[in-house]
């Protein structure tokens, strides 16, 4: 808005056109219509159409600027280009822009493809390295397993050979032992008696038989020791009378003489003689001798003791006569 003297001018835009309003004294109003803009289009979502619309609006804006400058100077307004020409130029420009964008997109796509190929190559290289390391570890593990298996087989073969060798030696030893003749049986006996009429007889039979080749020495030794233990725990053997009637007890010698004299006076002729008193003698032991036990080792020598005869304290009843 400008003011000069008594005149005032103001410019405004109405319905897309520029209007100049001049007020002069006292109340006169004068309006001048200037250049008009193209109507605003409905913006499209299509990329190519949107580029054409923007190009047309830019061309119209440039013409409005040049028309306003000429109008303010009072010059003739510049000629506006036809709409077909503007559209053709805008179409060419839009194609150029699209081609440029397409080139940029293709270049970017090629860069992305190169990056993808590089990443793929790096990934393949890493995978090959990892596979090589896995193969190396697997080969090392297989080698260790093979070595352990070989050592185990060697150890088992050595143990088998040792077992066969020991079995062969044992067979040879048993064969040599079977070829040796059996030794003669050795039997020992020990007898003892006391003045009370008690007698004790112990026997030990040791023999070497065929069981030596069968390894029965331990069992025979156990049976021998058990038989000795039983004979020892049973105690001495007491002599028993051989007849059914009990034997009279032998009195002292003086009493025996007196009894015999009285009996000779009282008994009539033809009477039976009184039973004489005979000292008790140990009877032979009826215990069965232990079985001959075969042993491998030669038994130690044992001494045999003869039974001591019983001696009466005085004379016998028959010695007085």
From TrEMBL:
Residues 143-164, 177-321 are annotated as: Disordered. Residues 221-232 have a biased composition (Basic and acidic residues). Residues 180-199, 210-220 have a biased composition (Low complexity). This is Uncharacterized protein. It comes from Pyxidicoccus fallax.
